[in-house]
Every structure is written in structure tokens, then in C-alpha cells.
Design goal:
Number of strands of chain B: 9
Strand content of chain B: 5-15%
Strand order of the largest sheet of chain B: 5-4-3-2-1-9-8-7-6
Distance between the termini of chain A: 56 Å
Distance between the termini of chain B: 24 Å
Helix content of chain A: 40-55%
Shape of chain A: globular
Strand content of chain A: 15-25%
Radius of gyration of chain A: 19 Å
Largest interface: A-B, 40 and 43 residues
Number of helices of chain B: 11
Oligomer: heterodimer
Largest sheet of chain A: 6 strands, mixed
Structural class of chain A: alpha/beta
Number of strands of chain A: 14
Strand order of the largest sheet of chain A: 3-4-14-9-10-13
Number of helices of chain A: 16
Shape of chain B: globular
Chain lengths: 396, 257
């Protein structure tokens, strides 16, 4: 009989050192208890509404729709949340859970810095200690977010091992957790890692699709034809998909970072170029070589620059419920500039990957079709890097 | 019957960990032979992994040097065939689940058997996931080694009852690496292990001095040393084997018979 928990088809599981097993078991038990606790849910809803600013807007992008001349485009404005991204949804849930479990210290990994900033924010709010691991390469790409985390009282530890990006930050956060478990909760930022993280993070992010559904029914009296989100580990995407999984007429589209192209080595498109493996606590698809060495992936977007994908996405791919497409740096940068000019909204470079795909498919769809694109975060953090990409050397 | 048992038949076992290909396979061969001459009873051969999440900086460095040197799983298999001509003590591979899974679990484990490897240690494979490889290991007579940690309260009996080869008792929280003090109450963990199995139990993580080796061998059936040996390789490179022989000898001598 299988002892393995947290499976999505063949994916998921708990491939972690024995040292962490009781910690994840304790977390699972606490989560199963509190998710049904009315007081916990009341507190979390209040935090999400009063502190983070939910529900986020579902905005009809009229100019973009007219310009592209096809399907009607709505934007789910997670960029308007407090701290500027969807990450706060998960962090407030996990921080509240950790507090209830008696933990006094949060550790986290971060890529672009959005999850680190959100974790530092929740730690400040709840009076908890906070340590964030961030690839050294990313601390350079996202210097402003490093400052923000420190401003919020967190310690930021630059990770120099491996490729010094998101995957190495995850590895280092895991190492830290094995050395200090009693008072510390590892606030994982995406729907990845060992069970129960993929489930917990998905549940906390599912508020995105719950709101889209309600807002869409109110505005259009029907469900959308497609929902689109960018995918690194996949938390904003699973949040965008989750309440539509049973609605088979709603197309679910995840946009991976192709970097310089899926036919190059400088890519982070896991579904498009990876294969089944076991890493960071889960079985899923990973970019890796013939011998299972994890590939040094690349994307212009620090938040999508990860060699794996959450196990539930891997499963949705296997059963053909969701489609995963690859978007290059160039396409994402074009979309970043396009939305800024067309709608006056500067999207995160991560979210720009989803927009780029919407820009490709909207013109091919009839005008009575509806697409929802999740703008997972705001793009202020990316302006300097995009300027440099375009050859303008500006200081932040 | 597992050959690993032989390692525990001449008093307490000294188990040496060496990363294959750090800095090259020729040096690894000399290092293993030196460790055995120094008194090592069992050799753990590390197959390097790009992202060794259970390792501290020293063994991470060894993994990196080995991979940069171009070592691969296939080269290591060929290397073991050659090594087995000179080394007869039991040997186990220590690597990460993805290295085995990605090679094709059955192909990998079958090959282990063919080249004379006696066991497999995967630090990212807890009890709940061992079925991933367990049946194949049984089929090819390769012992899948179980780990028990200071945080394993309530799980020790369950793990010990199904243990094969030997039990790797992790001395402290955190990752591999040398430590000045080991404060875990290892006695009581070993007691629970012994109530549940006859499989020997060796302690690893943080052991570097003869005093620690003496203490750990008085509590358990053996001591596992990795980072301290890797540091010698890091410091002396191709000249390391002689130092390893002396070092292992000093550790083995200090251990309880």
C-alpha cells in the first residue's frame, strides 16, 4: 500500500530528508484543522480584505480589446494587491497558520523578490522574525526589492551556490529549515515542494479564480472562454485555474518562460523542454540533463526562472486539461511595453508572459469570446531591467 | 544476505564517504584504497548532484568540483568496475533520488548489482517514499539504506522495522558538515532502534575528530565521516590519499572495538 501523500496523478509526494518529515506532517495536521476553523477563516478573510485590498478588480481592457480586434479581454488585477502581487494571498494564509502553530520565525525563498517582500510584510504585521533567501544574481536584478525586505525588518541572505537564482534560494531555504525547525515555518512561495505545500498554496491562491468567476458572472452573465496566467512554480496560475477546472468549456492556459527560445539552452520552459524527475521535494517535470543534473535555466524574469513546475500543473498537463505554452523574453518585453502604452498599466515582466500569449490568440478569436489574463504583479520592479534590455542604461 | 553486514563484523565500523570525481576519478580510486588501508570498513561513494539539498558547503563544493570535472553516472559505473579489482569491502552509493530516477530506476539499480555495489543511500527519500525504489532494490539485492534523524520522534520504530543493510542515524539537525558539539540524545534513539531491528546502526553528520568517533562508536555500531575527508581532498587534491589513510587510521584506532 502506498504511504505517499499529496499526489496529483504520478506527481507530487514528499521527497525530503527524514529530518523534515515530522515538520511537514505537523504542518499538514495544523492546516487540515485550521482550514475548517471558522475563526481562522474569519481572520484570514479580514486580512485579505482590509489589509491586502481584496477582492482585486476584474478590469475590462477595452482599448486592448479594440486594438487586437478579437476576443474581449479582461485583466485580473492582482497587481493592485498590497505589496503589488498575488504573493500576499498565500503569505497571509501561511503566516497566520504559522502563528497559530506557535512559530515565531518565517523563512522564505524569493526569485523576483515579490514573495520575499510579501513574507517580510506579513512578518512585520504579525510580529515575527523573517529571513529571506535570494539568489545573488537576483539580488542584483531586483535590488529595490532587497531594500524593501530590509526596510520591512527582514534579513536577506544572498545565495551564491549553483546558478545563484530561484532554485538555489529554494535549496538554501530547505537547508535552513532542516537546521531550525522548532520555531521556524518555511513559507514556501509557490505550488511546489513537498506535500502539503502544493495544496496549501493552491488553496490560498484559489481566491483568484473564485473572484474571477463571481465577477465574470456579474459583468457578463457567463464564464470566460479562456483564462491565462504565467507559470514559474505556478502559484498565480493554479489560483487562476482552480475554480475553473471542473468547467470544461473554460480553456486553461499557462505561459512558461522560454527565455531566448525553447530550442536554446537559455530557457526555463519546463513543460516544453523538461522531463519527469524528483527534485525539491516533489515528483514533477524538470529541466535536466540526461543524468538528472538540474539544468541552469534562464529567463529575463527572475520570478519564472525556475527549472521545475508545481505537481498539479504537471498533472493538468498530463490529462490535457491545461495547455502550457512558451513565451520568449522578446515577446514578454513587447507585451510589457504594449500594456503600458495601451492601458496605462505597467505589468510585471512575469505577467507579461501571459499577456503576450493573449496578444497572440485574441485576434484569432471571435468578438463574442472572452479571455481573462491574470496580471499577477505590477511592473515597477522591472522598469530598470527592461530599460537595460532596450539598451538604455538607467539607475534605479 | 547483505554483504553490508560484513562491515560490522570487525568491531565498530568506520564508514568513509568520498565524492566520485573530486577532483578526478584517478584520485577517487587512490582515496578509496587509502581509506580502506587506513581501516575503513565500508565505503560510501557519492555520485555528484547539481543541487545537493542535504549537504553543507564542504560536500556541495565536492559535488561542484566533480561535475565540473565532467564525471557522469556512466563514468562512475565504469570506475566502480575497475575499483572493485582492488577493493573488497562493502560499498554503497550515496546520491539523490533524481540521479537514480532519471537514469531509469531499474537500469540504475540493476547496474549497481552487476558492478558490486551493495547499497544505496538517498537523503531525499524518506520512509513514505521508499516504495519508489524499494522493490527494484530487493529484486537486485541492493540494500536501500534508511535514515533516522533527531527529529524522527514517533517514527523510529516504523523505520527501523523495515530497515535494510544499515541504519544511517543523522546526529544533528541541519546539513552535512563538521560540528564541534553534537548534543542530540542519540542513546535513546539507538535504544529504540535496537528494540526494533538487528540491522546495525551507524552515526553520521558532524563527526570529524577521533574523540567524536570514539563517542559515536560507543553509542552505536559505527561512525560515518564525509566532510572531514572531503576537506583533505579539497586541501591536498591529488596528494590527499596519504593524508586520508593517516586520518582514517587515527579515527579507526580511536573507535571502540
Amino acid at each position: 500500500m502506498s504511504n505517499s501523500k499529496g499526489r496529483f496523478g504520478v506527481h507530487g509526494g514528499q521527497y525530503i530528508p527524514e529530518t523534515l518529515m515530522n515538520a511537514v506532517i505537523e504542518l499538514e495536521e495544523a492546516y487540515n484543522h485550521y482550514k475548517k476553523d471558522p475563526e481562522f477563516n474569519r481572520e484570514l478573510t479580514e486580512l485579505l480584505n482590509e489589509y491586502a485590498g481584496r477582492p482585486s478588480r476584474l478590469y475590462y481592457a477595452e482599448k486592448m480589446t479594440k486594438d487586437l480586434g478579437g476576443a474581449k479581454i479582461y485583466l485580473k488585477r492582482e497587481d493592485l494587491n498590497h505589496t503589488g502581487a498575488h504573493k500576499i494571498n498565500n503569505v497571509l494564509g501561511q503566516a497566520l497558520l504559522a502563528k497559530k502553530m506557535g512559530k515565531t520565525r518565517l523563512i522564505a525563498e524569493t526569485g523576483a523578490g515579490q514573495h520575499g517582500v510579501a513574507t517580510a510584510t506579513a512578518a512585520a504585521l504579525m510580529g515575527m522574525e523573517c529571513v529571506v533567501f535570494m539568489g545573488e544574481e537576483d539580488t542584483k536584478r531586483q535590488a529595490l526589492n532587497v531594500y524593501k525586505m530590509r526596510l520591512l525588518g527582514a534579513e536577506v541572505i544572498p545565495v551564491t551556490t549553483g546558478t545563484a537564482t530561484l532554485k538555489d534560494a529554494v535549496s538554501e531555504a530547505m537547508r535552513e529549515w532542516t537546521s531550525r525547525i522548532d520555531d521556524t515555518h518555511y513559507c514556501l512561495g509557490s505550488v511546489m515542494g513537498p506535500h502539503p505545500f502544493p495544496t496549501i498554496v493552491r488553496d490560498f491562491q484559489a481566491v483568484i479564480s473564485k473572484e474571477i468567476k463571481e465577477q465574470m458572472l456579474e459583468k457578463e452573465g457567463r464564464l470566460p472562454d479562456a483564462v491565462i496566467a504565467c507559470v514559474g512554480g505556478g502559484s498565480n496560475a493554479i489560483g487562476t485555474f482552480y475554480n475553473f477546472i471542473e468547467d470544461k468549456d473554460v480553456q486553461l492556459i499557462g505561459c512558461e518562460a522560454a527565455g531566448r527560445g525553447i530550442d536554446t539552452f537559455e530557457t526555463a520552459a519546463t513543460i516544453n523542454t523538461g522531463r519527469l524527475g524528483i527534485f525539491h521535494g516533489m515528483k514533477s517535470y524538470f529541466c535536466q540533463d540526461k543524468y538528472g543534473q538540474i539544468a541552469p535555466v534562464y529567463s529575463i524574469s527572475a520570478g519564472l526562472d525556475y527549472p521545475g513546475i508545481g505537481p498539479e500543473h504537471a498533472y493538468l498537463h498530463d490529462i490535457h486539461r491545461a495547455e502550457y505554452v512558451a513565451i520568449t523574453d522578446d515577446e514578454a518585453v513587447n507585451a510589457f511595453e504594449y500594456l503600458s502604452r495601451t492601458e496605462g498599466i505597467i505589468p510585471a515582466i512575469e505577467s507579461s508572459h501571459a499577456l503576450a500569449h493573449a496578444m497572440k490568440i485574441a485576434p484569432t478569436m471571435d468578438k463574442d469570446k472572452i479571455i481573462v489574463v491574470t496580471i499577477s504583479g505590477r511592473g515597477d520592479k522591472d522598469c530598470a531591467a527592461i530599460a537595460r534590455y532596450r539598451g538604455e542604461d538607467i539607475n534605479e | 544476505m547483505s554483504k553490508i553486514k560484513n562491515a560490522f563484523e570487525n568491531g565498530k565500523a568506520f564508514i568513509a564517504f568520498i565524492t566520485c570525481g573530486d577532483p578526478d576519478l584517478e584520485t577517487t580510486k587512490e582515496a578509496v584504497i587509502a581509506a580502506v588501508k587506513g581501516g575503513a570498513d565500508l565505503i560510501e561513494l557519492g555520485i555528484p548532484f547539481s543541487d545537493p539539498t542535504a549537504e553543507g558547503p564542504v560536500i556541495q563544493g565536492a559535488n561542484l568540483r566533480a561535475l565540473n570535472g565532467g564525471v557522469t553516472t556512466d563514468k562512475i559505473f565504469d570506475f566502480v568496475v575497475d575499483l572493485r579489482k582492488s577493493v573488497s569491502v562493502p560499498m554503497v552509493f550515496m546520491t539523490y533520488a533524481n540521479v537514480v530516477y532519471s537514469y531509469g530506476s531499474e537500469d540504475f539499480i540493476k547496474r549497481c548489482n552487476e558492478i558490486g555495489m551493495d547499497g544505496l543511500i538517498l537523503p531525499d527519500l524518506p520512509f513514505e517514499e521508499k516504495e519508489e525504489f524499494e522493490d527494484i532494490c530487493t529484486k537486485y539485492d541492493v540494500d536501500l539504506v534508511s535514515l533516522i534523524a533527531p527529529t524522527s520522534a514517533g517514527r523510529i520504530a516504523m523505520i527501523a522495522k523495515e530497515a535494510k543493510g544499515f541504519i544511517y542515524l543523522v546526529s544533528s539537525l541541519g546539513v552535512t558538515g563538521t560540528r564541534t558539539n553534537i548534543t542530540t540524545d542519540l542513546d535513546s534513539i539507538v535504544n529504540v532502534i535496537r528494540e526494533n531491528t538487528d540491522v546495525p546502526c551507524a552515526i553520521g553528520f558532524g563527526i570529524s575528530t577521533p574523540e567524536q568517533a570514539a563517542k559515536m562508536s560507543s553509542i552505536s555500531d559505527g561512525a560515518i565521516v564525509g566532510s572531514a575527508i572531503i576537506k583533505l581532498l579539497e586541501k591536498y587534491g591529488k596528494e590527499a590519499p596519504n593524508h586520508i589513510r593517516e586520518y582514517v587510521s587515527s579515527m579507526k584506532t580511536a573507535m571502540v572495538r
